[in-house]
TrEMBL record:
Residues 40-143 form the FAD/NAD(P)-binding domain. Signal peptide: none annotated. It comes from Alkalispirillum mobile. One of its GO terms (molecular function) is oxidoreductase activity. This is Sulfide dehydrogenase (Flavocytochrome c) flavoprotein subunit. The keyword Flavoprotein applies. SUPFAM superfamilies: FAD/NAD(P)-binding domain, FAD/NAD-linked reductases, dimerisation (C-terminal) domain. Gene3D superfamilies: FAD/NAD(P)-binding domain, Flavocytochrome c sulphide dehydrogenase, flavin-binding domain.
Amino acid sequence: MDQPLINRRQALGLLGATGAVTALGSLGVPMTARAAGAGHVVVVGGGFGGATAAKFLKRFNPAVEVTLVEASEHFYTCPFSNWYLGGLREMAYIRHGYDELKDRYGVHVVHATAEDVDGDRHEVRLSTGERVRYDKLVLSPGIDFDWDGLDGYDEAAAEKAPHAWKAGEQTRLLRSQLEAMDDGGLFILRAPDNPFRCPPGPYERVSLIAHYFKEHKPRSKILLLDAKDNFSKQPLFMDGWEQVYGDMIEWVGASQDGNVISVDADNLTVETEFGSRHQADVLNIVPPQQAGFIAHRAGVADDSGWVPVKPQTFESTQVDDIYVVGDATIAAPMPKSGFCANAQAKVVASAIVSEFAGHEPPPAIWNNTCYSLIAPGYGISVAGVYKVIDGQIAEVPGSGGVSPRDTDEAFRAREAEYAVNWYEAMSEDTWGTRFRG
Ligand SMILES: Cc1cc2nc3c(=O)[nH]c(=O)nc-3n(C[C@H](O)[C@H](O)[C@H](O)COP(=O)(O)OP(=O)(O)OC[C@H]3O[C@@H](n4cnc5c(N)ncnc54)[C@H](O)[C@@H]3O)c2cc1C
């Protein structure tokens, strides 16, 4: 099914941005007289990794043609979605559009789903039926859920027991359930085993829902059932919970029978590995995860469900000229965070621009800081610096670490402020957008 690649108007719009048009080929393929050292890069996914890659490719070399394929007109960030759930932000705060990437950076943005990739022909097939050719392809599709990974939990169940692990409608649904819950109700969150998107995310979530309960439904309780025995920033979270929320939050690790093995969404009930049953008033299931489906279609994911990459460039180890960034990758010890996706995307943009120009890519280095809010004015963080050591991604010895356990209120308040500054700077760095109220 050879569909036109992109239509003539789009092609002229795309190529007009670089002034590099000549003609359309027989399949509607744009034949470009590219500036020396440039090429056409297709980026799939306009979240933290993809939007950053598209923007920085244009910043590093404006002659590179960049087409960003993103399914949605707006992107809702998971970062700060917990703040929304806790009543500390509006949805508008976490919504970002693509106008800046188009108008200020000359990225050609196509709102469609990339349905398939033909790595031999260097083509991406879109939900519109169009095929887009690339010299280099960057995939940043984020996660998809493994709907077979947890008994009883599928897309229909998520309408009753939301995951809210991709932000947007699911986040709104969870918030409306929390608002409708009676004071004295039980909120249960099921946290998944590693690896998963945002290691501190479930623990920040219960913190901010506890904040909401404390303000509006103080007799309510939170039960956090965990498929593992340890979690990110654990001592800091547990100190904070006790200090701010008393006994409102109960965390149960896997060896204490916290591992949920089946879900009955109709009755808001879960069953654990050792046979306990728990009934919730609001049930939040964070399911097992894997790389977004397009990574599987492109043949870059392995049996783990995630994507192995060459450490220095994040090019796929399986298919040439495909680069993968963000949550979809196997990049441990880097966590699956928006900050890492953004940092990886810059390294990929630099590697591609260097390759077009016939240079070696500069040595890669990545930073990450994940802030979590325990309560308004009470922030904590974990940070790390990563580079390639002996052919593997590794944390630079002595870099990073977590917030101190014994510190004063002013320190926690500063970290809460840094969290907001981080979010706003990161949004601007990624989409060129800043919330103006
Ligand atoms: C509750 C929560 C809190 C978090 N807080 C933080 C935080 O404070 N700090 C932090 O750094 N990280 C945080 N994260 C993690 C962060 O959200 C992810 O790590 C980040 O979004 C990963 O970026 P990505 O580009 O890989 O994927 P995403 O940002 O999810 O972007 C993927 C995009 O690709 C699009 N897409 C997917 N497939 C296709 C396709 N086939 N065709 C077209 N488009 C497609 C999707 O529509 C989406 O827009 C949090 C996560 C959660 C769940």
